[in-house]
Amino acid sequence: MTHEHGPDVETLKARIDAAFDADAGPPAMSLRAGNALDDYATPPSWDAALDTADAAYLECNFWGLSHLDPASWRHYLPIFMRHALNQIETGATSSAVDALLFSLGSPDASRLGSLSPGQQAVVSQFLDLLALHPRSSWADEATTALAWYWAPGATYR
Questions:
Q1: How far apart are the C-alpha atoms of 111 and 136, rounded to whole Å?
Q2: How many CB atoms lie within 10 A of CB 36?
Q3: 119-138: pLDDT as tens digits
Q4: What would the DSSP string read from start to end of 78-138?
Q5: What is the pTM for the complete model shown?
Q6: Cβ atoms within 10 A of the Cβ of 22, count?
Q7: C-beta of residue 127 within 8 angstroms of C-beta of residue 145
Q8: pLDDT tier at 5 (50, 70, 90 boundaries)?
Q9: Whole-angstrom Cα distance, residue 104 to residue 101?
Q10: Max CA-CA distance within the chain?
C-alpha cells in the first residue's frame, strides 16, 4: 500500500536494507545480551542459533534495545524497522516496535549521532510512514519521535 506522503512499505524496506547494509554483521552485543542486562543478569555471548532476530526474538528481547552500544543498536535498528513494517497493514501492536520508537525518540546523542546521513534519512521516512499510515498502531509514538528529534526544528536536535 502506498501512503500519500512517502515511499510505500516495500520501497522503504529496500531503502532500509541499503542504508544499513554496513551494519549487518554480528553485533558486539546481542539483543538477548541487552535483555539480560535489563534483568540484572550476566549477558550471554553471541550465539548464532539463539540470536536469530526473527519476530519472536524481537518480542521476547525488546528490553535489551536500550542497553546496546551504538554499533549494536545500528545492527538491530533495521531489523526492528522491518518488523514494524511487516505488521503495519494489520494494525497490530508490538512491544518491540514500542521499544524501537522509544529508542528513536530518546535524545541519546551517542546512538542517534552514530547514524550516517543516509541512515538518518531512512529513519525519518520510516517514522513519517508510521505517523501517517492509515492503519498504523504507532502514529502517536512516531509523531512524538519526529517532534523530539527527527523533524526539522525538533526539540532535541
A1: 25
A2: 19
A3: 999 999 999 999 999 989 99
A4: HHHHHHHHHHGGGT---HHHHHHHHHHHS--HHHHTTS-HHHHHHHHHHHHHHHH-TT-S-
A5: 0.92
A6: 11
A7: yes
A8: low
A9: 5
A10: 46
Alpha carbon distance 113, 97 (integer Å): 21
Task: Write the pLDDT tens digit of every residue in 47-79.
Answer: 999 999 999 999 999 999 999 999 999 999 999
How many Cβ atoms sit within 10 Å of the Cβ of residue 112?
21
Separation of CA 65 from chain center? 9
Residue that the C-alpha cell 542459533 belongs to: 49
Q: Cα separations (Å) of 41 from 35, 67, 127? A: 9, 12, 33
